[in-house]
Specification:
24% of the residues lie in helices and 40% in strands. The chain has 141 residues and is α+β, with helices and mostly antiparallel strands. Strands 1, 2, 3, 4, 5, 6 and 7 form a seven-stranded mixed sheet that branches. It has a single domain, classed as Hotdog Thioesterase (Thiol Ester Dehydrase, Chain A, Roll), CATH 3.10.129. The radius of gyration is 16 Å and the shape is elongated.
């Protein structure tokens, strides 16, 4: 779980977290967790691949304010057995584990030279995706 540092600029006129900030925080956390599991920016550049999103959805449950103590927990919800398609779940949780928002992204990997989906995925991707933390209801799609 990653503790979030919120900024004044992250707030909307109602003094709670702006909707687009949830997506930005989740994107940053996704890149961090991929990096921790071997899918680094350097590996992506060296092997000419990168993540591509098809769908992103956030369910807002409770407001988050500037002084809220919020953690972001990121886990793999679904993945094809070859690692080519996946769904990642982000939970925005208070320090008392109350759910404030649930964000899902569905994606794949793109060959950055051919500009087509990467098939098969590079081995570094498969190993990294396999090692990501998984939800209790994780499934291979």
């Amino acid at each position: 779980m990653n503790f979030l540092t919120l900024r004044w600029a992250d707030l909307d006129p109602n003094f709670h977290l702006r909707h687009s900030v949830y997506y930005d925080l989740a994107a940053q956390e996704r890149l961090s967790i991929l990096d921790r599991h071997g899918i680094t920016i350097q590996a992506m550049q060296a092997e000419n691949f990168g993540p591509v999103l098809f769908r992103e959805e956030c369910q807002f449950k409770r407001e988050i304010h500037l002084t809220s103590k919020i953690y972001l927990e990121t886990k793999l919800l679904k993945m094809r057995k070859d690692g080519s398609f996946w769904t990642i779940q982000h939970e925005f949780l208070s320090d008392s584990k109350k759910l404030h928002a649930l964000l899902f992204v569905e994606g794949s990997w793109i060959d950055t030279i051919k500009r087509k989906l990467a098939r098969p995925v590079p081995s570094v991707v498969f190993k990294g995706m396999e090692s990501l933390p998984k939800t209790a209801d994780f499934t291979y799609a």
